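Query protein
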Amino acid sequence: MMQFGNRIIFPVGNYRDWKLWITDGTDVGPIELKSGVVNEGSSLGVFGDRLFFQGRDVVTGLNLWVTDGTSEGTMIFKEIKLGYCDSNPITYYYYGSYSSCFYELGDGKIVFRANDGTNGMELWITDGTQNGTMLLKDINPGSDSSSPLRPAVQHNGKIFFGATDGTHGRELWVTDGTSSGTVLVKDIFLGIESSGPAWLASVRGKIMFWADDGIHGNKIWKSDGTANGTVLLKENEALVGPNPFTEFCDELFFFAKSDGFPSRAWS
């Protein structure tokens, strides 16, 4: 469910058969936005006066769609993978639920992930126009996927996210919206093994996340966006994750196991 101007857009359905409905809260009742269009994963992202979503129809398969809140203004935005093929934009399955891969940069552009059938699942960017919607960087060169933005967080006008380039495992990356500015922050678990950065959060000017360096297990790390500034939070910390963070009053709260005790709340 998401606020869209003075209306609410929400999915109705189950599993992979979600339909988008819209309501202004009056007794006129909600209406289906577009007949025949399935919103798989129910991921939504507002960009100005339009809302983007992952949609499927019988002609193009699964692609990037857009709506202005009317049936006439609900249409495929960009057929990233031509023909009846799935480009799988925006949404991914993460720790038991569908999550959005739709992140806004400080300059108003949006990054998301998609598969064009040539480069695998990679990082894409849009300025809200079809011509301005393009592959940002083929992080894992060729047809293999880097599977970026799983997970991700916006921090100081940049997007920090997990990805693999085929040489390193899944590690912490960052993008400023340019190809040259899309780089590996740090190879935490050296070599092809993955540190698996999870549950990224931005708090007090730092990126906080869980990762495994192959020595200490899955622990909490912090980063200032540089390799030298990406470090284990506490060397001898006994907490074991990963578990999601909840931010409240500039603090992070989470559940974790410690020293053989069952999962408890920490901050």
